[in-house]
Amino acid sequence: NKRLLLRYRDVESITLDGKKVEINANAGGIEDIEQILKFGPDGIGLYRTEFLYMAEDKLPTEEEQFRVYKTVLEKMDGKPVIIRTLDIGGDKNLPALNIEAEVNPFLGYRAIRLCLDRIDIFKTQLRALLRASAYGNLKVMFPMITNIHELRKAKDILEECKAELKNEGLKFDENLEVGIMIEVPSAALISDILAKEADFFSIGTNDLMQYTLAVDRMNQKVSYLYDFFDPAVLRLIKMTIDNAHKMRKHVGMCGEMAGYLPLIPVLLGMGLDEFSMNPSSIISVRRLIADLKYEDCKLLADNVLQMTSSDEIKNYISSIEIPVF
Ligand code: PEP
Ligand code: MG
């Protein structure tokens, strides 16, 4: 709807009582940017880089990656762009890598685990990202962090790359922010520890739900368990937000839940700072937030967090008069 688009694109998202949140878009490649700009988000909350690697049967070079990241940053014209390092494995295979088939690929060799094993591949990407950071507002994010060692190792390798670039006289953003995805239950459970060493969090509900509820996100037979209203997942989200805020760190969400209208008031009430979603959801989410009161949402979230089952939560939320429902 043209009128709504004009009203809600490129505007701040702010509740009736003045609470501001960021509304960002998820991107899977450079070809998504045009569509994203049409909806005028505050930035990109998740740029998935794996498709860049999956496109061909050889790995993208530093130069090829640098050009892609630089173009994305320039097109976003100073708005923040969170680029996630390679998250391959699980459901996404990489022709160039020839990864052995695994019995439990979602519990196996993927994402940051692969990158910390194949430091050559990781460094190529980090160097490209660092070089691109000179051309816009880039933040880097590591996927699938499970413990503090992984975060420390990944940051050490990033520092190595910075030192290399300095020696080579190549410029990059010295204050580049480095965040992590919270998408493994262990990371949510130690989010107080991780918040001390990460600049920001982004909650990946797609995987956080899969791992918390022990339900394969691709398996239709058990999809009834894959439930946005599950109290265990909502508790982990709340815990993560509180732990980030104790360390004054920003916490966003880039899983599908972030664009799911019925839960927006609850997530807002829990204190989430940023929602990153499919660009086509941006206008309806902005419109909803403009009609909400943060103080009401806090009470709503408190009530939800006391409840015992997903049915109870679902019924409660649908009984409340919130526009859009
Ligand atoms: C997630 O797990 O919620 C997420 C955003 O990452 P992906 O869907 O790419 O695994
Ligand atoms: Mg994920």
Total helices: the number is: 15
| Main beta-sheet strand count, sense and barrel state | 8 strands, parallel, barrel
Cα separation of the termini:
18 Å
Oligomer: single chain
Report the mean per-residue pLDDT as an integer.
95
Helix and strand sequence: HEEHEHHEHHEHEHHEHHEHEHHH
Which ligands occur here? phosphoenolpyruvate, magnesium ion
- What is the molecular shape? globular
Protein name: Phosphoenolpyruvate-protein phosphotransferase
Family: Belongs to the PEP-utilizing enzyme family.
Binding site for phosphoenolpyruvate: 48, 84, 206-207, 217
Domain PEP-utilising enzyme C-terminal: 8-292
Relevant terms:
single chain, 325 residues, alpha/beta, eight-stranded parallel β-barrel, 15 helices, 9 strands, 14% strand, globular, binds phosphoenolpyruvate, binds magnesium ion
Question: Could you explain the architecture of this structure?
Answer:
This protein is of the alpha/beta class and about 325 residues long. The protein contains 15 helices and nine strands. Strands 2-3-4-5-6-7-8-9 form an eight-stranded parallel barrel, surrounded by four helices. The structure holds phosphoenolpyruvate and magnesium ion.
Give a topology summary:
Blueprint: H1 2-8, E1 13-14, E2 20-27, H2 33-39, E3 43-48, H3 50-54, H4 62-76, E4 80-84, H5 111-117, H6 119-132, E5 137-142, H7 148-167, E6 177-182, H8 185-189, H9 191-194, E7 200-203, H10 205-212, H11 231-246, E8 250-253, H12 264-270, E9 274-277, H13 282-290, H14 294-305, H15 310-319
Parallel strand pairs: 2-3, 2-9, 3-4, 4-5, 5-6, 6-7, 7-8, 8-9
Antiparallel strand pairs: 1-2
Helix pairs in contact: 4-6, 5-6, 6-7, 12-14
The protein binds phosphoenolpyruvate and magnesium ion (MG).
Phosphoenolpyruvate (PEP) is lined by residues 46, 48, 87, 183, 204-207, 254-255.
